[in-house]
Each structure stands twice: as structure tokens, then as C-alpha cells.
Amino acid sequence: MDLWPAIDIRDGRCVRLLRGEFSSETVYGDPLQQAWAFVAAGASRLHVVDLDAALKGGSPNRGVVLNIAARAGVPVQAGGGVRDESAASELLEGGVARLVVGTLAVERPAVLARLVDRWPGRVLVGLDHRSASGPNGAVRREVAVHGWVASAGLELEAVLERLEGLALGGVVVTDIDRDGTESGPDLAGLERVLALSAFPVVASGGVASVSDLVRLAELSAAGHRLAGAIVGRALLSGRMSIKEAIVACEP
């Protein structure tokens, strides 16, 4: 299971949000400096998100993202606000190794199909979801779009079905209710995704400790294990080190 240290960018700064709420922000400084710090500590890849673009579209921090991709010295997986083929091309041709798209995948499936045909294996779909009450008290996992401020009106499982047959690099599954909380990952939900999909699955949201990563690395369903785990606040706050996290990701 690969470790993906996370760098979220807002107003040109490295930040972390609580459950995706823009009013709950912790600032950690310069994104490029943070990228170098992660790499110096042993990180072999980075996950970078343009939060401003995710919320509003456009490319407010794209230069920062491309600068990290060019200068960090490790593969960068980037996402946030990629709404069309032009934006995807700028990132993937500009040095980003893998691209994560969310809103585009839900709202513009034809564009997604073109992206994966053009860059097979380099495009991932972000399945960012919140829990909601369904019929008879059942829990629905509703996919969120536009910087997590709107619901797509679709359950995670339905979006997964739509993606079948595409040459994706994988799916990034984020439990928004846990993101930034360090309350532990959604093991049951991730196990269900592993059972439903043959895509490589990258887990995101809630990781607080080495033991959380160990449990993720050991998680298995239908013969599938997680391909990666994204960790943000726990690394930025010093709760765990890059070295400890990498060791924990080894099955």
C-alpha cells in the first residue's frame, strides 16, 4: 500500500480543513517547502489538491501545483477543480504524474472517457462522499461535488458502476465526515468498495495513527487490497512521521 502525504492548497498556502469545511482551516505554511520536507523525510510520492479550484473552478493555485510537480523530485498526484480537458492537459503535460477528477467524472462522463483514452492509467476518480440516512434507517454514501459543498444525488456504489470499463488509474475514496478529524478511517466502507470494484483503491480520510495505517494495509475483500492511503493532518501535525507511516503501509 503506497503512502500519499497530502498537501492541500488554499490561497497559495498549505492548509488542512476539518470535514471539508472552509471555515475550519489550519495553516501549515508554504506548499513547496512542505513538499520538500515530506520528500526529505522519505516520502516517495505526494498528493496535492487545489482547494480553491475545487470550490470555484478555474486555476487559482495551478502554478503552485505545477511548481511542486516540477521541483519536488517525486511523482505528484494532483486534483481539485479540473473541469475540462484543457485543465487536465495542462497538469498531465506539465509534470503531474496522476490526475484525480471528481465533479467532472460525475457531471461530464463523456469528457472523463476522453481523458482516460488519452492518458490511460493516469486518471483517477475521486469518490468523495458523506453518510446520509436512507430508507428504513439504512446508511447512504452520497457522492459530493464542487468542493464538497453540493451533493451529486448519487450513491457511491452507483458512481462506481458507471466507471466500469474505463482505463482508470484507480479511485480515491474519501469519507468527508472523517476528513481532517483524525478519528480513524472508514474500514467497513472501504472494504465494501474493495468488494465491489476491481479498480485500485486509494483510501482517504480520518487516518490518525500508525495503527490506522496497519489496519488499512491489512484490509482485504474479494482478493483485493488497498493500493494506497492519503494522510494529511497526522503527518503535518507530527502525530506520526513519514518513516513510521511508510513502515505501517507495508503488509
Name a few traits of the molecule.
31% strand, TIM Barrel, single chain, 14 strands, 35% helix, 251 residues, eight-stranded parallel beta barrel, alpha/beta, two-stranded antiparallel ribbon
Short recap of the structure:
The chain is of the alpha/beta class.
Q: How far apart lie the N and C ends?
A: 7 Å
Rg computed from alpha carbons, rounded to a whole number of angstroms: 17 Å
Give the total of beta strands.
14
| SSE series | EEEHEHHEHEHHEEEHEHEHEEEHH
| Total of helices | 11
- Quick one: overall form? globular
Full CATH superfamily name: Aldolase class I
Overall number of domains: 1
What is the CATH third-level topology name?
A: TIM Barrel
Please list the strands of the largest sheet in the order they lie side by side. Answer: 1-4-5-6-7-10-11-14
Mean pLDDT value: 91
Q: Identify the CATH class.
A: Alpha Beta
Helix content: 25-40%
Strand content: 25-35%
- Name the CATH architecture: Alpha-Beta Barrel
Uncertain spans, ≥5 residues at pLDDT below 50?
none
Class from helix and strand fractions:
alpha/beta
- Major sheet summary line: 8 strands, parallel, barrel
